[in-house]
Amino acid sequence: MGVPQITVIVAVHQAEKYLHRCLDSIVNQTFSDWDCILVDDGSTDRSGVICDDYAVRDSRFRVIHQANRGVSITRQVGLDAAKGEYIIFADSDDWVEAEWLEKLHRKIIADNVDMVICDFEHICAEKTAYHKGCGASTDNTDLLAEMVRIGKWGYWGTLWNRLIRRESFSRYQVSFPPDMSFMEDVYVVSKLLTYPIKVSHLPEALYHYDATVNGDSLTKSINDQYYHSIMVYVNSFSPILSSSRFDEAWYQLKKRVKMNLFSSQGQSRYEFKNVYPEINERLIGEFEPSRWCSKNRCIIMCLRGHQRIGFFLYDVLTKLKRHIRWIKR
Q1: Within 10 Å of residue 136's Cβ, how many Cβ atoms?
Q2: Which helix (H) or strand (E) holds 210?
Q3: What pLDDT sits at residue 267?
Q4: What is the Cα–Cα distance from 10 to 125, expressed in whole angstroms?
Q5: In what helix (H) or strand (E) does residue 105 lie, and over which residues does it extend?
Q6: What does residue 166 show for φ and ψ, rounded to 5 degrees?
Q7: Model's pTM, two decimal places?
Q8: Suppose 69 and one of 73, 85, 178, 262 were both cysteines; which one would form an S-S bond, judging by CB atoms 3.0 to 4.6 Å apart?
Q9: pLDDT tens string 6-48
Q10: 290 Cβ partners below 8 Å, 6+ apart?
Q11: Looking at beta carbons, which pairs linking 232-235 to residues 24 or more positions away fall under 8 Å?
């Protein structure tokens, strides 16, 4: 086949239980001028075999097998291999509407833009929610301001609801950071939006983000890699996005990192005071009204230079709370 209009990139890792659902929804697209790159990131289950089966049945699928390297590098491998005029990503545990590609392609052509964003459906244990891809404004700065906002990232910086002109990646040398295992999609979208690309919005939920099926997903867990990725993001973009409209978002993200360092074990926790020291005084003021025997009081003590005492008291409080919970059983 010739050069396709759209290349779909799917990073695959330990996805045998739900991979068929994702790939079937791509096969069933009403838009036919696509190819799909499946990057099997060192799966030890049948994911790799399933990928190969689809490639045998449909020549539009291409499979790349590699040793486990993480989602960010895996997505970059797919992007490097892509040939389509436009790029979109899909997660192996999600699925898409049959008109996902057709409607996004029609919109990006009609509006003559570099990125078109659609809405999506978020499926979790409690409920299914409709999420807008962006607000009334598609101005790049407005989109960035919403994306870096605390909570659920305002308007999410995901790649699977964005059809993007492939040339935008190469022209502005935008790539996935290899040292991020979380938020790598937010990083890439943010990087693109710092350049003069044109953006449009398609107000239809064409993607189904399923948060219920993959319990091992990093996006569903909190660990040191998660906070390292936040630091990479903050350190990369806070110098660029330095206007007052971003100040609160940067404070909240920096606070997340510091709180994680405080609660961590080992020598790394002693970095707590010196990581983002510019927010120390605000943290002290915020935690000042707290009870004397609370975690927040221990944090104040550490920020004021008494780290060993503060951490010692926090560890004692933590052990006491665990002991009380054990007694109450």
Answers
A1: 8
A2: strand 199-210
A3: 67
A4: 24
A5: helix 100-111
A6: -60, -35
A7: 0.89
A8: 73
A9: 999 999 999 999 999 999 999 999 999 999 999 999 999 999 9
A10: 296, 297, 300
A11: 232/177, 232/179, 232/180, 232/183, 232/187, 233/180, 233/183, 233/186, 233/187, 233/190, 234/276
